[in-house]
Amino acid sequence: MGKVILEVKNLKTKYITRFHEDVYSVDGVSLKIEEGKSLGIAGESGCGKSTLALSMMGYYFPPLHYTSGDIIIDGVNISGMDPDKVRTTILGSEIAYIPQAAMNALNPTMKIIRFIEDVIHAHDKSVSKQEIRSRAEAYFKEVGLPPEVLDRHAVELSGGMKQRTVIAVSTILSPKVLIADEPSSALDVTSQKMVIKMMKDLMKNGHIRAMMFITHELPLLYNVTDDIAVMYAGQLVEYGSAHEMVFDPIHPYSHGLMGSILVPEEGTRGANLTAIPGTPPNLKKPPVGCRFAERCKYAKPQCFYTAPAERMFGENGTRMYRCLMDEEELREVYANE
Amino acid sequence: MKGYRKYFGQKLLWFFITLIVAVALNFVLPRLMPTDPVNAITGKIAGGMSDSSAIKEVYEFYQKQFGLDKPMITQFFLFVKNALRGDFGISFSQYPRTVADIISSSIGWTLALQIPAIIVGWILGNVLGAVAAYKRGIWDKGVMPLFMFLGNVPAFAMAIVLLVLFAMKWKIAPSGGGYSSQMIPNMSWKFVKSVLSHYWLPFLSVVIISIGGQAVGMRSMSIYELNADYVKYSRFLGIKDGKIVKYVFRNAMLPQVTGLAMSLGTSIGGALVAETIFSYPGLGTTMLSAVTSSDYPLISATTLIITIMVLLVTLFLDVIYAFIDPRVKAAQFD
Fold first, then answer.
1. Cβ–Cβ of A156/B326 closer than 8 Å?
2. Cβ contact, residue pair A169, B237, below 8 Å
């Protein structure tokens, strides 16, 4: 087992709406990413994927609020830290973020190089502008972006170019962890491929040491990340290696989710695609029992009033699922379908 | 560089086309008024005369003097030719003063009143809007609505209220004029002091009214920019709030520059009300008396000045926008 770069322990955060209602959008998430590994987070819209990404930055601004839990980056717990200290010493340099709408992530009236200057100066005032320029030029060349981009404004770049520029800006300080929130969802397949390749190369060349990749596109995760976690209604319901998750999902939700996608692998061709009926629960008032019970084909009466805990299983006990039913029971149910 | 030249060339071309059309309209419109100014002057001069041929002679003399006996089209080319030399003819109503003389003695008053007032109002309005958007609380819920209310008070009402309060009730300001009526304009310290004491009340009336409108625009632009994705992204890269606020307000200011330039362009027209009520010796007062006395040359000249100011400001805006806002640059030069 490699060194753990990012560890999240029972993280809980909530949104407080303008009507003073609490929305428990991340409700007890625990995960680990080892050095050189990547974790994909999958789930449908509104399940809390993006909120999880924001919560893991350790810096909160309204309406998002921290409730409890730990975020440990390379042995340093940042969840109790002073927000200003998190901002100057952690954000951008230890943990970096690629936002969902990278199209608008860059200030439209600023040249890219000016923004990079501000990013670097936010962490180290002593670096001179010439130094920043030569560093940025070298870095852009390395990640396959023309250095001319530095003297452009965001509006002058194409969508794919903008996205790759955002990735380059985010990682210019070689952060340990990169959290990418749907970095490729708005792009065409060619640009998607370039973005994915760029992120994989960053990992290979040691610019980042661990990566979390959030998307609703499961087939993409299978090709990009080492592990996959499935999120439902603010909680992780299952995680395991990408291969295990795609070919042997055990939780009824991930089972349904995987059944709803096409995987271009031998043996899956010709399988019927199925959809999961219903909608996710309201997170202002999460159900007392299993959050998926209402949509679960296999739900039993106790599922509606007993909340399931995380259960480890699989070889070496590295996989997790959150269900009241036993592994064998579930496998039997699936086999008889 | 080719893109720039083409862009500016186009803007310049449009500037001249608009200018020509505007000059023509400026010339024609006052002359379409149903009153006959020569009649009025003749009436004044020939007031005691009973000899109808003598009256006719006076009438024809002035008609010739003003060039009104020639066909309209000839008059127009004469007007343009003279205007290019800075000669706008002789005023009908203040005969025999030249229009150029009347304007040059009043335009300074107007510009000195309006430009500082508009700029101060603009700056205060933008600061208020930005603070209201960023700090919220009393600024957003108290100060902001107050200035919005004041901004919607008609200019004449604001001027009258100020006049009643400061000049009549508290007697801390003179009730009108540009300087004390016992003085002849000169460069002495005493005269400057008199000018300043007459200056601040009309100045205040313009400033108070302009704050609200500017603040509303700035506030909504700032709120929009504060919620932009780049703000969130910059925060997550560890950039400090002070810096991010600078990004936000710079971007929010850009549309406000248009607002400033346009109000500078229309300042002379806007000066009319305040100047009239404070009997300020500016171009607004001049224009009003020109209109009421059908003084064609003077109307044409003042409206021409307004037109040219608006056009110049628009041209200037087009040019600077290309430099300060890369979005405009990208949209225009492609």
1. yes
2. yes
